[in-house]
Automatic annotation (TrEMBL):
Alphabetic keyword roster: Glycosidase, Hydrolase
SUPFAM superfamilies recorded: (Trans)glycosidases, beta-Galactosidase/glucuronidase domain, Galactose-binding domain-like
Superkingdom of source: Bacteria
Keyword Magnesium assigned: no
Domain DUF4982: 626-683
Hydrolase is among the record's keywords: yes
Gene Ontology molecular function: any one: hydrolase activity, hydrolyzing O-glycosyl compounds
Domain (Glycoside hydrolase family): residue spans on this chain: 696-792
Domain Glycoside hydrolase family 2 catalytic span(s) in chain numbering: 272-424
Protein's UniProt name: Glycoside hydrolase family 2
GO term, biological process aspect, one: carbohydrate metabolic process
């Protein structure tokens, strides 16, 4: 098999119907390098049909076009197009002949182009996509994941034809099975030899085999080979050791490579989740698929950077919300050591939005499950498959039938991983909610802990209604239902639970519960990284706020959910440091200061997805001598607050939230110090100092780039003082110009409510920061110039090097 990257030399435009085209109507074509999100650059509007769910972006339909040479040498070969993600309802035409389609915007699929090709000439490829009111979050639109062209000889390893699994791990060796599916598309019977070599991280061959196989015309056959790897380096989050399997057919060009990890995964209600026999608790982050300033484009380096930053913030697992993640993100998880809960669907047969996948689910679910498992089964980071998220049907008998059908299909495809489902018990019994609330003593009683989900999820009705659909799972995922943890430990003694979705503000209360219940294997917070759409669900609404709609989502121009531990630029918000302390990963206290403009203002809506409106800063120009609220996060029982060495406040830890102390004081510039005490003994301290005069600074995370479709340089733009302190109140417009062998791919700040555009060269910083994303476009040097009125320009030099022609 020869696989050609196929992401360059595309154009896109709005669709043209056949009659309009016949009468000469034309649309402007824009050149793009894939992956690409066409919807990102459309105009946001307050009256967009999808409203806040889709971040006020409009509907969109787009046509992608590409011409490519088909040499005569390809006669007699199979030519297939691999599309890793096209949102949505993609139709593929080659030389204006229909070649294939796919409904799901996240499914990876293959289209056989062979019957429609004209050899020795340029061929025209056209892909139609459309999106609108078919998602509960910002979906984007277009070829948002990579495209690859596969050219195979008649006898070849089929796409996704390599399946690698760890049979067992012994003291001195690991047993690994590799099953290779080989096909014969020729007209004669062929006997070939399948050679497999396993290499370690140093590219040294550690095992190999050579097996004959005979194939009749039109036949597929599986070649199974068992390998014994001596003294294996096991894959785990702390030691993500990778091997590579290369399978070739002797005497032919067909060659397939796949990285893999040697590791085992087990779950049970007494010993929890074990990787290679060692217990591990999932410190999980739910993540949506967008990449902030890039929209939905899953460019490899952007995916990798997200995983690196999430792991640095203390997470060891992600939950794909609510669709299979990209190949690029899984590759990054394998390399970095991030566990993955891999999710298939956000709905089955019942609609959540007017035009979503529920209309296609009955016809496509099998193919889409097969696609997810085939794409992801060789990734050691993937430890669990989820068949859905908040599926309303799971509380009905026929919904349980669907659950069993899906779970068994996944097990048939891959028996090595547990199967789960993200169950929202409240949604599953939504028809009974009024009666249950009345039984609980009314709405106020049901919300006694601030979470009506908990009270209803713990009801006997919820237990009964979800019992059958839950019984088909290896691990029951519970969304916002930690009240069931101890209940189910007694009522369902064989049930293993994961907190598949939880309120981020509650982690201080949740994590001790998870540690105390052996039947619970971890928690996934909503969310680890802020995302586009479901706008403002993590914001606080204050009295007099003109942007308050009365709904969960906020009004235009809100852009992001504002619920992530990390914002859309990758900057850690205060909640992230609180979580790190709760997890026991950070001993040093942390100081955050609530924005003083809100001091004393009534909060009329504080979502459980929201953190306090705080910033880790003691720089608040214009608020001198005015009251301000300081939060100190600490694993301690008491905190003292000092300003320039003088104590100005003291508070018990845990009165508002576990591991948090809250102190009201007055803002005066200087140095703020928090001392943490346990039983009267100091156990940690930290400081914040008022920043001095701002200087514009910029730094690129990568100065050397490859000229391929996967690489990027992220340029962090900040205002800092001479000592490196972030000047959070120095927000100004900054502009970015890129010249030479690269281009500005997108720009943004973390501002959750703005009318600024991601394709703009100028943004206003938010809390002193902005981010520019630079994408290579040619081989050579590139210059990035960052400017802001009144400040010296910052000039960065990047070098773009050649990339491999094939992979």
């Amino acid at each position: 098999m020869t696989a050609y990257p196929f992401n360059d030399d595309w154009t896109y435009r709005q669709p043209i119907g056949p009659f309009a085209g016949a009468f000469g109507e034309a649309k402007a074509n824009t050149a793009v390098r894939l992956p690409h999100d066409a919807l990102r650059d459309e105009e946001r509007r307050a009256d967009a049909p999808g409203r806040g769910a889709g971040a006020y972006f409009p509907r969109g339909a787009f046509t992608y076009l590409k011409e490519f040479e088909v040499p005569r040498e390809w006669v007699g070969r199979l030519v297939r197009l691999e599309i890793q993600g096209a949102f949505r309802r993609a139709q593929i035409f080659i030389n204006e002949e229909f070649a294939g389609n796919r409904a799901d915007g996240y499914a990876r699929f293959f289209v056989d182009l062979t019957p429609y090709l004209v050899f020795g000439k340029k061929n025209a490829l056209r892909i139609e996509v459309r999106a609108g009111e078919d998602s509960r979050w910002y979906s984007g639109a277009g070829l948002h994941r990579p495209v690859v062209l596969h050219v195979d000889e008649p006898v070849h390893v089929v796409p996704d034809g390599l399946s690698i699994s760890t049979v067992r791990v012994e003291d001195d060796q690991a047993v690994v099975d590799i099953a290779t599916t080989v096909a014969n598309a020729g007209m004669t019977t062929q006997t070939v030899r399948v050679r497999t070599e396993i290499t370690d991280a140093a590219a040294s061959i550690v095992e190999g085999d050579n097996t004959p196989v005979t194939l009749a015309p039109g036949e597929k056959s599986i070649v199974r080979q068992r390998f014994y790897v001596s003294e294996p380096e096991l894959w785990s989050p702390d030691h993500p050791s990778l091997y590579t399997a290369e399978v070739s057919i002797e005497g032919r060009e067909s060659r397939v490579r796949s990285s893999f990890g040697i590791r085992t995964v087990t779950v049970d209600p007494r010993k929890g989740l074990r990787i290679n026999g060692e217990k591990i608790l999932l410190r999980g982050a739910c993540v949506h698929h967008d990449n902030g300033a890039l929209g939905a484009a899953a460019i490899g380096r952007a995916e990798e950077r997200r995983i690196e930053l999430l792991k640095a913030a203390g997470f060891n697992a992600i939950r794909a919300a609510h669709n299979p993640v990209s190949v690029g993100m899984l590759d990054a998880c394998d390399r970095v050591g991030m566990l993955v809960l891999d999710e298939a669907f956000d709905m089955w047969t019942r609609f959540k939005t007017p035009f979503d996948y529920a209309a296609e689910f009955p016809q496509w679910w099998t193919a889409d499950l097969e696609s997810m498992v085939a794409k992801d089964r060789n990734h050691p980071s993937v430890i669990m498959y989820s068949i859905g998220n908040e599926i309303a049907e799971v509380g009905t008998p026929h919904g349980a039938r669907w659950a069993r059908r899906l779970a068994e299909r996944v097990r048939a495809l891959d028996p090595t991983r547990p199967v789960t489902n993200g169950v929202n018990a409240l949604l599953a019994i939504i028809d009974e909610v009024p009666e249950i609330v009345e039984q609980l003593g009314g709405l106020n009683a049901a919300m006694a802990d601030g979470n009506v989900f908990n009270a209803i999820s713990a009801s006997s009705s919820a237990s009964d209604r979800i019992e059958e659909s839950s019984s088909v799972l290896d691990v029951l995922g519970l969304n916002y239902a930690e009240s069931r943890y101890s209940i189910d430990a007694e009522a369902f003694v064989h049930r293993v639970i994961v907190g598949s979705e939880s309120f981020p503000s509650q982690i201080g209360r949740l994590w001790p519960m998870i540690c105390a219940n052996d039947n619970v294997i971890g928690d996934f917070s909503w969310t680890g990284w802020d995302y586009l759409g479901e706008v403002g669900i993590g914001s606080r609404t204050y009295a007099g706020d003109s942007n308050a709609s009365g709904r969960l989502e906020r009004e235009f121009p809100y852009l992001t959910a504002w619920s992530g531990d990390l914002d859309i630029t990758g900057w850690r918000r205060p909640a992230s440091y609180y979580r790190e302390i709760v997890y026991g990963l950070r001993s040093e206290p942390f100081i955050a200061v609530r924005r003083p403009e809100h001091f004393g203002v009534e909060i009329v809506n504080s979502s459980l997805w929201a953190w306090s409106d705080s910033v880790s800063s003691w720089t608040w120009s214009g608020y001198e001598q005015k009251p301000v609220t300081v939060e100190v996060y600490a694993s301690a029982d008491e905190v003292a607050l000092l300003r320039d060495g003088d104590e100005i406040g003291r508070a018990r830890v845990g009165e508002v939230l576990p591991m948090m102390a809250v102190i009201d004081t007055v803002y005066r510039p200087g140095t703020l110090t928090a001392l943490a005490y346990e039983n009267g003994i100091e156990v940690g301290r930290t400081t914040l100092t008022t920043a001095g005069e701002a200087v514009l600074v910029a730094r690129a995370d990568r100065a050397r780039l490859r000229n391929d479709d996967a690489d990027l340089s992220h340029v962090e733009i900040e205002f800092r003082d001479a000592d490196g302190r972030l000047v959070t109140d120095a927000d100004r417009e900054v502009s970015v110009t890129v010249s030479g062998a690269a281009a500005l791919a997108g720009m943004s700040s973390a501002n959750p409510a703005t009318t600024e555009r991601f394709d703009s060269h100028t943004w206003r910083t938010f809390d002193g920061r902005a981010l520019a994303v630079v994408r290579p476009s040619a081989i050579g040097n590139a210059t990035v110039t960052v400017s802001s009125e009144g400040y010296a320009d910052v000039v960065l030099n990047l070098q773009v090097e050649t990339a491999e022609a094939e992979r």
